[in-house]
Write the structure tokens for this entry.
Amino acid sequence: MIASLKGLIQQKQPTRLVLDVAGVGYEILVPLPTAATLGGIGEGAFLHTVQIVREDSLTLYGFATLEERSLFQKLIGVSGIGPKIALNALSGPPIEEMVGAIRTGDIALLTRLPGIGKKTAERLVVELKDRLGDFGDGERAPATTATSDAEEALVSLGYSRSLAEKAVKRAMSEAANTGNAEALLRSALRVLTGGK
């Protein structure tokens, strides 16, 4: 079983990358937050991985943190949730928000995740509510983590460090939800591109 990989990024798309490890290119599917933390093509990367072997395929899923990988494994253990739905769920709200929704039975938030209907959301709550003891307190990530994640994502997209810091700072002053790295990244990109 492949538990982690370290190598150079050969190809990078929003939820897929190819990592060159000692001359072998591994295709790895990743959630958006993980992709945002990685550098560009030719840069080094380290990923915690889950290898899923099916009759007709062998697929690697990669994660920036052990927490992401652990939640992915818990999600795919729930009936009706496969790797694709779990990956999409991890590309949605921050982990802390999703864990909080599962713990409190927030079906409305869970059903906003792609591929998760009401019955699946209810199963998530029933099956995982008491199995998430290793995930913080279910609250939103601190803003400092969100800002640094957003800055790193901008740098990986080719912006200079100083420009990334300025854009994130401006986005922080304008954004209502500063604890969400993805929302902050979108706001910072709007600042940089002059979008509305």
Notes: The first strand starts at residue 4 and ends at 13. The chain has three domains: 4-63, 66-131, 143-193. The CA atoms of residues 96 and 140 lie 5 Å apart. Residues 137-144 have pLDDT under 50 and may be disordered.
